[in-house]
Design brief:
Elements: H1 4-21, H2 26-42, H3 48-68, H4 71-77, H5 94-108, H6 116-122
Helix pairs in contact: 1-2, 1-3, 5-6
Subcellular location: Mitochondrion matrix
Family: Belongs to the complex I LYR family. SDHAF3 subfamily.
Keywords: Chaperone, Mitochondrion, Transit peptide
């Protein structure tokens, strides 16, 4: 279905995301690594149109997070992330909305077992 070049691009992007996550606070790094791993596994056998969208969105995520992790940006803002445009919610499926809510709950827990909420959604 995909060429070997595609597989190489996916692996490079995944490794880049994990490297960028190293600059996050420990609890966010765990949450981010687990979420990225699950998403990449979940989309392993998707069709080519979905794969294109998936790779573009994760590439944008990696670029935006890398920019936020620069020392100068950290000194100015002292925060990571950005607000989600509420109009995007209209385009999400019910499963995506549930997943977004679960991710929000897990991120809001702070130090209290950040990856356990994501595991409950899989059951």
């Amino acid at each position: 279905m995909f060429t070997s070049d595609h597989g190489l691009r996916v692996r490079r992007l995944y490794k880049l995301i994990l490297r960028v996550h190293r600059g996050l606070p420990a609890e966010l790094r765990i949450l981010g690594d687990n979420y990225a791993r699950d998403e990449f596994k979940r989309h392993k056998n998707c069709n080519s149109d979905e794969a294109c969208i998936f790779l573009n969105e994760w590439t944008n995520y990696a670029i935006n997070l890398a920019k936020q992790m620069k020392p100068l940006q950290q000194a100015k803002k002292k925060t990571v992330g950005e607000y989600l445009d509420p109009t995007l919610l209209d385009y999400m499926t019910e499963d995506q909305l549930v997943q977004l809510y679960q991710l929000h709950k897990a991120a809001s827990l702070g130090h209290e077992q950040p990856d356990s909420t994501l595991d409950q959604h899989k059951k």
